[in-house]
Design brief:
The protein has 109 residues and is of the alpha+beta class. It has two helices and five strands, in the order αβββαββ. Strands 1, 2, 3, 4 and 5 form a five-stranded antiparallel beta sheet that branches. A hairpin with a 2-residue loop joins strand 2 and strand 3.
Length: 109
């Protein structure tokens, strides 16, 4: 049996890893005023509580926080998606969302 301080340290370390970096943003410029972006987010769900929040919200907030003009989402995928059985992931699960889109004003031809 582990001593109590060591168990607390392990639990704290696991919590830091879970709540750490839960999203990323990649921006590619096509012209001076436009380009493409990819935003991702992941979240852990325990008893229908998303920690720190839903993966879709994290990915959308990352894209929005970039302050790019005319941000337009083209594709939004959340995995795993089990359809009607998705409630199983509400008990305990990890979800990952990837959002792709464009930003800015394309050059006139």
């Amino acid at each position: 049996m582990r001593p109590a301080p060591l168990r607390g340290l392990c639990a704290s370390l696991a919590l830091v890893l879970v709540l750490g970096s839960c999203g990323s943003l990649s921006i590619q410029r096509d012209t001076e005023t436009s380009g493409r972006f990819e935003s991702t987010g992941w979240a852990v769900t325990i008893l229908s509580i998303d920690i720190p929040k839903s993966s879709k919200d994290i990915a959308r907030e990352n894209a929005s926080d970039s302050r790019l003009t005319n941000l337009r989402i083209d594709d939004n995928r959340t995995t795993p998606y089990l359809g009607w059985f998705d409630w199983l992931l509400d008990i305990v699960g990890v979800r990952y969302t990837k959002i792709n889109g464009t930003w800015g004003f394309p050059a006139e031809k």
